[in-house]
Amino acid sequence: MNCKELIDILELGEDSKTQFKENFSSPDAMAAEIGAFANSQGGKILVGVNDSGEVTGLTKEDIVRLNQMVSNVCSQKVEPSISVTTENIKCGDKIVMVLNVPMGLNKFYMSNGSDIWVKVGADKRRAKREEL
Asked: What is the separation, in whole angstroms, between the first and last Cα of the chain?
């Protein structure tokens, strides 16, 4: 993805396959988002973007921390584990990290040991028993 493609996505806003996050401070919050996408159709989490679609950007330290967090979350906080790829996009003087979450093949994915999340529109919610 390049800067133009990123801007095009931002102009469309959040939907079932696209989520904007300014940053992640909690591995549990990241696990919930990744689990919701894996339990649904997959999608992209754009980190460094506020809810309005404005690029707030990430520091180099954020990028290092987030890459480590993604690795830990995908192997330790989401069961079964899932492979998420990351991509850093520079747009102007700001960096956005894109987490590419595939649609899970081994559904249902449990986040943080007990929660099963699914995407509904631009939001996530806990899965209902009949969905499981």
From this structure: 34
Query: What is the overall mean pLDDT for the chain?
Result: 91
Q: What letter does residue 61 receive in the DSSP assignment?
A: H
Q: Which of 106, 116, 118, 105 is nearest to 16 (CA)?
A: 118
**Mean pLDDT across 11-18:** 92
Whether the predicted pLDDT of 21 surpasses 80: yes
CA distance 118 to 7: 26
The helix or strand, by DSSP H or E, that contains position 18, with its residue range, turns out to be strand 18-21
Alpha carbon dihedral 101, 103, 108, 111, in 10-degree steps, equals 10
The three-class DSSP label of residue 20 is: strand
* CB crowding 97-124: b at 16 or more within 10 Å, else e: bbbebeebeeebbbbbeebbbbbeeeeb
* Secondary structure of residue 68 in the 3-state scheme: helix
Query: Which tens digits make up the pLDDT trace of 53-92?
Result: 999 999 999 999 999 999 999 999 999 999 999 999 999 9
Residue 88 identity:
N
